[in-house]
Amino acid sequence: MHSHAHGHHDHSHGHPQEIQNISFSFVIAVAANLGFTVLEAFYAFIADSASLLADAGHNLSDVLGLLLAWGAAYLATQRTSKLYSYGFRRTTIMAALINAVVLILASVFIAIESVDKLLNPSPISEIAVMVVAGIGIVVNAGSALLFRQGSKKDLNLKGAYLHLAYDALISVGVVVSAAIIYFTGWIWLDGVAGLMIVVVIVLGTWGLLRDSINLMLDAVPQHIDREEVLSYLCGIEGVTAVHDLHIWALSTNESCLTAHLVMPENTLWDSDSGYGEVGQVLQTRFDIHHVTLQVEKDTECATQDCD
């Protein structure tokens, strides 16, 4: 004998005010960073600065990454259809992955330019570099703050946040290196600063790349402890075994669970209200939004003994 329960909360549209706030953040961030990228690239060529050009290239990847994350965040709010039964939520995971890849590719470009500058050092306009990079600190740090709160629970927004936060840090490095060159005349330091930027980007992006690949492969989301979930399900009254437990990400801020619960004897828990209670616990305690449970009476189906 089998019984089945499914419970979830509809997240396809989200809270209208929250969606509006996110869209507003993207509009401000994209406009500010696009304008600054053009300005920085222009002065990078004038000042002949590898570190400033590297920062401009990274800022361009910021703009592209923000547009990608914005598009994915919008698609995630669209309704499901006959063809796309889960809607377009998974595009947020794709956006996070692409953002990570773009950051890595930008690092390669920056490294090539920096090595060339290190091998063939040339004078730069230190004052122009410091002024432009200083503006970059304000633009990037301010834009990053727009996504700081959302980045704590959404990998897609985390990708946008990391792009901007690391650019602010990179701009600080550009200002410092330009100041040192101004006072010491060590023009080779411009290339060294570019390589240090590469290290910072790669180290900061690794976690985003790892997490987004894991989500694409339907791994258990990092913030969920599978063993704790299993322990909770095994602790339900009447459950003697749990098998076929699967936990995966539906989007960068939603997760799903399916499991077979072996319950040889009927219990008061085996009811609609009981299923609802379990679904509520899984959401509040483990942040699992979509739950599907199948109850089996046949103990021979068990592969995980709760004892």
Structure description:
- The protein is of the alpha+beta class and 307 residues long.
- The chain folds into two domains: 16-216, Up-down Bundle (Alpha-lytic protease prodomain-like), CATH 1.20.1510.10; 221-301, 2-Layer Sandwich (Alpha-Beta Plaits).
- The chain is 62% helix and 10% strand.
- The protein is built from eight helices and four strands, in the order βαααααααββαβ.
- The chain has helices at residues 16-47, 50-75, 91-119, 126-147, 155-184, 189-216, 226-234, 272-286; strands spanning 2-8, 241-249, 255-262, 290-296.
- Strands 1-4-3-2 form a four-stranded mixed beta sheet, with helices on one face.
- The longest helix has 32 residues, at 16-47.
- It starts with a strand and ends in an 11-residue tail after the last strand.
- Mean pLDDT is 80; it is low at 1-13.
Low-confidence segments, given as residue ranges, are 1-13
Q: Within the CATH hierarchy, at the fold level, what is the topology of the largest domain?
A: Alpha-lytic protease prodomain-like
Name of the CATH homologous superfamily of the largest domain: Cation efflux protein transmembrane domain
> Main sheet?
4 strands, mixed
Helix share, percent? 55-70%
Q: How many discrete structural domains? A: 2
Number of helices: 8
Q: Mean pLDDT, rounded to whole units?
A: 80
Structure classification: alpha+beta
Return Rg in Å.
25 Å
**Basic shape:** elongated
Task: Spell the H/E element sequence.
Answer: EHHHHHHHEEHE
Our measurement of the CA-to-CA distance between the termini, rounded to an integer number of angstroms, reads 23 Å
* Secondary structure: number of strands: 4
CATH architecture of the largest domain: Up-down Bundle
Strand order of the largest sheet: 1-4-3-2
Briefly, what CATH class of the largest domain?
A: Mainly Alpha
Strand content: 5-15%
